[in-house]
Amino acid sequence: MSDIIRNKKIITFLYLGIIAIILLCAFLFSVKGKKEDVAIVLNGNEYYKLSLNNDYVDEGFSIKINNKEIDLENVDYKIKENVNKEVIGQYEVDYEINYDDKIYKAKRYVEVVDDVKPDIIVNQDYVAKYYCKKKDKLNIDYQAEDNYDGIITDKVVVDVKDDHVSLSVKDSAGNESKKEVPIKIINDEDAAIITLNGKELIYLAVGDEYKEEGASLTDGCGKDSNESLNISGTVDTSTPGEYLIKYSYVSASGLETIKNRKVIVYEKHSNTHNVNEERVIYLTFDDGPGMYTEELLDILKKYDVKATFFVTNQFKKYTHLIKREYEEGHAIGVHSLTHKWNIYRSVATYVKDFNDMNQIIYDYTGERVSIFRFPGGSSNTVSKKYSTGVVKAIASKMSKNGYVYFDWNVDSEDAAGANSEKIINNVINGINSRKSSVILMHDIKRSTVSSIETIIKYALDNGYTFKTLMVNSQTCHHSINN
Questions:
Q1: Residue 482 to residue 381: CA distance in whole angstroms
Q2: CB of 175 within 8 A of CB of 115?
Q3: CB burial of residue 263 (10 Å; 0-12, 13-18, 19+)
Q4: Which of 49, 268, 372, 392 is a good FRET partner for 232, with 20 to 30 A between their CA atoms?
Q5: How far apart are CA 406 and CA 324, in angstroms?
Q6: What are residue 273's phi and psi, to 5 degrees?
Q7: What pLDDT sits at residue 275?
Q8: How far is CA 258 from the centre of its chain?
Q9: SS3 letters for the chain?
Q10: Cβ–Cβ < 8 Å for 285, 307
């Protein structure tokens, strides 16, 4: 009887053991076959808007396995992004991780947008309105600049109301600015307009002769007046300083009209003192000539500094200044006839634009030039919208024909809207970090012309040499991206 009981116990243990083994195998099989849930979780938004010219800072990501976040140091991952903060468009940021010999991917979309309104600059506090017998005469001096489109004065819409003038302008991104300028009614009897002969700002070296060019007086309707102007102030060309010549007229009713001319007498600076031939600066100015170019030339003349102008025919009112640039010893190069991006449609369209601009240079100087700068630089990506690989093809063809292009290694960031203080800091920091500096600036920017004297003084005081670019100058090239 005891043997039977013993056998039953053995059978029971065997039976329970088999069941336990089966359950264990089933558990192990389920664990091994269970699929891990791996997810890349983006920090911030999947769709990201970036304001033009602002640096893109990636917000990063985290990795979760079965909803549990793991340390990134334990995972191989890559982040690839091609965001160009200077060009409007949509870009992608790719995230890729390698986990357990499998590749997992995620993507973020970054849209570079122009959300900065253009700036309307009005050079007067009010608009004088004169009533003539047959028509009204209304004069207003204004300019519009945009951080992306540049000078857009021709796009300003002027609407004359009863008591003010309304100015509005939109940039290519649709950002709109508005400004109102009050109208001041002036009776014809008291109206007087003083117009200076020559320039309002004159630079003279010590010892030069000041020639008074005078001014003209008209009434509110533009009719010449026989009345005489009162001219006061003197210029001592033997003593450096700023002098003011005042032109004034007082009407019969006691209304005074004033116009001033500023004369700056300066000591000639030599850029040969403390010269260090290993520390060279090439000042380069793009997009002009424009409304500030003549003032810039006066400052360069004051310090006997030569620069390189990559010129356009954008502002036909000032194109003739190419002649003065050339005659005063500055280097001239081609930038573009119109500075429109569609010149990158093909090699042929670019070459035609180049040749047309070079012909204009020849008309003013008697010489064609062999140096040029690509609109946007050789590294621009805007050209991709018009033709793939076109910049490489242009560079190759132009090089074979004996032309040399120059980019830059110091960006003043004036084209991005930097103010004068920022421009000065960018340039000084840039030239201090290298021996040879090709500085990108634009003579159509008020902030640039306002900062150039400080930059020149700093450079001369610290032993830099100013030179102009020539075909045999050491080239400064970016990596071509198209």
A1: 6
A2: yes
A3: buried
A4: 268
A5: 22
A6: -80, 140
A7: 41
A8: 37
A9: CHHHHHHHHHHHHHHHHHHHHHHHHHHHHHHHHCCCCEEEEECCCCEEEEECCCCCCCCCEEEEECCEEECHHHCEEEEEECCCCCCCEEEEEEEEEEECCEEEEEEEEEEEECCCCCEEEECCCCEEEEECCCCEEECCCEEEEECCCEECHHHCEEEECCCEEEEEEECCCCCEEEEEEEEEEECCCCCCEEEECCCCEEEEECCCCCCCCCEEEECCCCCECCCCCEEECCCCCCCCEEEEEEEEEECCCCCEEEEEEEEEEECCCCCCCCCCCCCEEEEEEECCCCCCHHHHHHHHHHCCCCCEEEEECCCHHHCCHHHHHHHCCCEEEEEECCCCHHHHHCHHHHHHHHHHHHHHHHHHHCCCCCEECCCCCCCCCHHHHCCCCHHHHHHHHHHHCCCEECCCCEECCCCCCCCHHHHHHHHHHHHHCCCEEEEEEECCCHHHHHHHHHHHHHHHHCCCEECCCCCCCCCCCCCCCC
A10: yes
Q: What is the rounded distance in angstroms from the CA atom of residue 62 to the CA atom of residue 74?
A: 12
Q: What is the pLDDT of residue 271?
A: 40
Confirm if 130 and 220 have CB atoms less than 8 A apart: yes
- What pTM value is reported for the model? 0.56
Phi, psi torsion values for 160, nearest 5 degrees: -90, 120
Terminal-residue alpha carbon distance, the chain: 97
State the virtual CA torsion across 50, 53, 59, 61 in degrees, nearest 10.
80
Token look-up 């003013």 returns 364
Asked if 191 and 130 count as a contact pair (C-beta separation under 8 A), the reply is yes
Amino acid (one-letter) located at 205: A
pLDDT at 33: 46
Two structure tokens written together for 214: 């005078």
Best CA proximity match to 412, nearest among 442, 440, 444? 440
Amino acid at 358: N
Q: Residue 453 and residue 466: Cα distance in Å, rounded? A: 13
> How far apart are alpha carbons 276 and 138 in whole angstroms?
55
Question: Among residues 249, 260, 129, which one has the least CA distance to residue 192?
Answer: 249
Task: In whole angstroms, give the CA distance from residue 101 to residue 141.
Answer: 68
Low-confidence ranges of the chain (pLDDT < 70): 1-14, 17, 20, 24-35, 123, 130-138, 186-191, 220-221, 268-277
